[in-house]
Task: inverse folding
């Protein structure tokens, strides 16, 4: 009988590393500095397969400054998927550019390359695809279109670090933006990286960082202590007593006390906030170097778990599973399933102590702030919106956990 809950995520930080991070906080001069960051940038670039990498405090920060470093004119156009993270379109607008939406493929949730050329105009400058939930977009077609029209490509790799398309890592096709936050495949107490082979672009990107500051001591403590708490709170038995009751109260009982924890925050972003100009710190740089050495192993564990779920759930009526294409390596940061019975399935799983998380990508064209830029109909994005949940596949799960998840889903659909 299962007595523990299954958490939605795992913080890839072992106990000795957690203790090391804690003790590093006592040397604030060293901890808040950034002199170890260049080594992290160099090694991360090698891992991705690019010549350069530049660190940022958040993925959205990296996206914003990457767009600024391209030297585009006001209202130049950036093509991006209609079903993606709201922040991608927000960064395009904050950079003084115009988002142009393209529908996605229903089966992959990624941008439909067949529809990109339909919206290209003389003002188009960038294609901004998202590799959603660990599955690479169709980069062959995207790069062919980019070459044909002399466009840049900025890849949103936030959830897909380590994924490959035809044996080439995503983020190495032109410009890549990665996230190291909670729930990602590469965890580093937050932070991000922008990658590219373009020396001129990287030079301009680094010039935009000349006024970046070291992290304030208060923020350093909050960043690290929050990470340490998340690490231990997501351990299965502790999760059962610390976090699962909150999940239950919010999703099952409708307790709005926890709404701030489970609803995506969407600031207006009229201009870059102060926390956009803070550099990575030495604790992140040193821990990031360790993550580079093991991310392929943790990604493999995710994929092993994902394959078990696919085997167990194939053929379940009314449930659409994530695709696994032979020409690309999915890293299953999230195992995203679609069903019209989304809400009922989610409640059933949570009642059975499985934390099934909401998809945070949305049909951005349905959001009020982006309606002035809507340029067509987006049937797949509309169909996906609000009907996807994530099944846990993180590397801290045992095979028995994965089989339990599969069994409960089949039980739900067979009722």
Result:
């Amino acid at each position: 009988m299962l007595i523990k809950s299954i958490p939605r995520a795992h913080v890839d930080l072992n106990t000795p590393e957690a203790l090391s991070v804690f003790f590093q906080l006592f040397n604030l001069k060293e901890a808040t500095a950034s002199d170890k960051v260049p080594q992290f940038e160099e090694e991360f670039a090698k891992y991705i397969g690019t010549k350069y990498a530049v660190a940022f405090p958040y993925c959205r920060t990296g996206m914003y400054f990457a767009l600024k470093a391209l030297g585009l004119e006001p209202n130049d156009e950036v093509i991006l998927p209609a079903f993606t993270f709201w922040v991608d379109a927000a960064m395009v607008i904050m950079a003084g550019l115009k988002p142009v939406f393209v529908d996605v493929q229903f089966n992959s949730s990624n941008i439909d390359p067949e529809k990109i050329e339909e919206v290209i105009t003389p003002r188009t400058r960038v294609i901004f695809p998202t590799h959603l939930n660990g599955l690479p977009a169709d980069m062959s077609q995207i790069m062919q279109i980019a070459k044909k029209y002399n466009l840049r490509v900025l890849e949103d790799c936030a959830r897909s670090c380590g994924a490959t398309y035809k044996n080439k890592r995503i983020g190495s096709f032109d410009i890549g933006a990665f996230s190291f936050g909670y729930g990602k495949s590469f965890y580093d107490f937050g932070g991000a990286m922008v990658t590219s082979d373009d020396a001129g672009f990287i030079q301009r990107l680094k010039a935009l960082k000349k006024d970046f500051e070291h992290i304030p001591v208060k923020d350093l403590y909050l960043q690290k202590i929050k990470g340490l708490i998340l690490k231990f709170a997501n351990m299965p038995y502790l999760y059962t007593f610390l976090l699962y009751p909150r999940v239950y109260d919010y999703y099952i009982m409708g307790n709005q006390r926890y709404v701030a924890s489970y609803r995506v925050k969407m600031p207006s972003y009229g201009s870059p906030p102060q926390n956009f100009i803070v550099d990575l710190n030495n604790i992140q740089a040193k821990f990031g170097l360790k993550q580079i050495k093991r991310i392929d192993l943790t990604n493999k564990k995710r994929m092993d778990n994902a394959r078990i779920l696919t085997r167990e759930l194939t053929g379940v009526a009314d449930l659409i599973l994530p695709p696994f294409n032979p020409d690309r390596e999915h890293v299953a940061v999230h195992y995203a399933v679609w069903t019209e019975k989304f809400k009922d399935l989610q409640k059933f799983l949570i009642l059975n102590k499985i934390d099934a998380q909401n998809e945070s990508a949305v049909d951005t064209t349905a959001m009020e702030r982006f309606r002035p830029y809507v340029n067509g109909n987006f049937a797949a994005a509309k169909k996906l919106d609000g009907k996807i949940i994530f099944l846990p596949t993180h590397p801290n799960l045992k095979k028995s956990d994965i089989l339990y998840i599969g069994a409960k889903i089949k039980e739900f659909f067979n009722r």
